[in-house]
Amino acid sequence: DGIGRLDARITGCRACPRLVAWREEVARTKRAAFADQAYWGRPVPGFGPHDASLLIVGLAPAAHGANRTGRMFTGDRSGEVLFRALYDLGLASRPDAVAADDGLTLHGVRLTSPVRCAPPANKPTPAERDTCRPWLVTELELLRPTLRSVVVLGAFGWQATLPALTAAGLSVPRPRPVFSHGTRVALADGPALYGCFHVSQRNTFTGRLTPAMLRAVLHAAATEAGL
Ligand code: SF4
């Protein structure tokens, strides 16, 4: 189907020279703990059903997480927090995600990110964000028939996602809504948009984002999505 074709095309993208070099360098040099593993080292497509009603948008793959396993949020600390919350809400088949072949399935939820390649220091440049946008736009267009809510993790994702929603034909209010945790924005004739602090260690280790806070936003968005 369309999403399957999109995912296949994404994995072959080489449009950002700095990110191509970095993702492949990390895949070659590896982290000692994963020295015996073959890294993915390519762009990471979305993960989850092709008729999802809830879309969760992050930032970019982690160098030794999704850039290693080839699946969104899989194999890193951010993912541990996210999948635990999804499992607690009945949206994931298991509470952790370790590898692309671990059998984990998601219920009604798809995970994606506005930048598909691991960036140095987890910081894509604005140019890289804009170069990668068409992939997210197409994913939004393909999901649109079933999509009821979108949760965006963090301010970077928020800034990247609003223009993508507009480009996908959804009407984002003007002036553009500002990111904050727990905010909900209704898009006319489209999904509801939720802001949530990113599940990065910087937020979860410091208690800025607690498991209960994350569950609350995901629960609201899932309920709105009929899950
Ligand atoms: Fe392609 Fe996006 Fe990766 Fe850039 S970040 S190389 S646009 S997949």
Automatic annotation (TrEMBL):
<comment type="similarity">
    <text>Belongs to the uracil-DNA glycosylase (UDG) superfamily. Type 5 (UDGb) family.</text>
</comment>
<dbReference type="GO" id="GO:0004844">
    <property type="term" value="F:uracil DNA N-glycosylase activity"/>
</dbReference>
<keyword id="KW-0004">4Fe-4S</keyword>
<dbReference type="GO" id="GO:0046872">
    <property type="term" value="F:metal ion binding"/>
</dbReference>
<dbReference type="Pfam" id="PF03167">
    <property type="entry name" value="UDG"/>
</dbReference>
<keyword id="KW-0411">Iron-sulfur</keyword>
<keyword id="KW-0479">Metal-binding</keyword>
<keyword id="KW-0408">Iron</keyword>
<keyword id="KW-0234">DNA repair</keyword>
<dbReference type="GO" id="GO:0033958">
    <property type="term" value="F:DNA-deoxyinosine glycosylase activity"/>
</dbReference>
<keyword id="KW-0227">DNA damage</keyword>
<keyword id="KW-0378">Hydrolase</keyword>
<dbReference type="GO" id="GO:0006284">
    <property type="term" value="P:base-excision repair"/>
</dbReference>
<dbReference type="InterPro" id="IPR051536">
    <property type="entry name" value="UDG_Type-4/5"/>
</dbReference>
<feature type="domain" description="Uracil-DNA glycosylase-like">
    <location>
        <begin position="45"/>
        <end position="218"/>
    </location>
</feature>
<dbReference type="InterPro" id="IPR036895">
    <property type="entry name" value="Uracil-DNA_glycosylase-like_sf"/>
</dbReference>
<dbReference type="InterPro" id="IPR044147">
    <property type="entry name" value="UdgB-like"/>
</dbReference>
<protein>
    <recommendedName>
        <fullName>Type-5 uracil-DNA glycosylase</fullName>
    </recommendedName>
</protein>
<dbReference type="InterPro" id="IPR005122">
    <property type="entry name" value="Uracil-DNA_glycosylase-like"/>
</dbReference>
<dbReference type="GO" id="GO:0051539">
    <property type="term" value="F:4 iron, 4 sulfur cluster binding"/>
</dbReference>
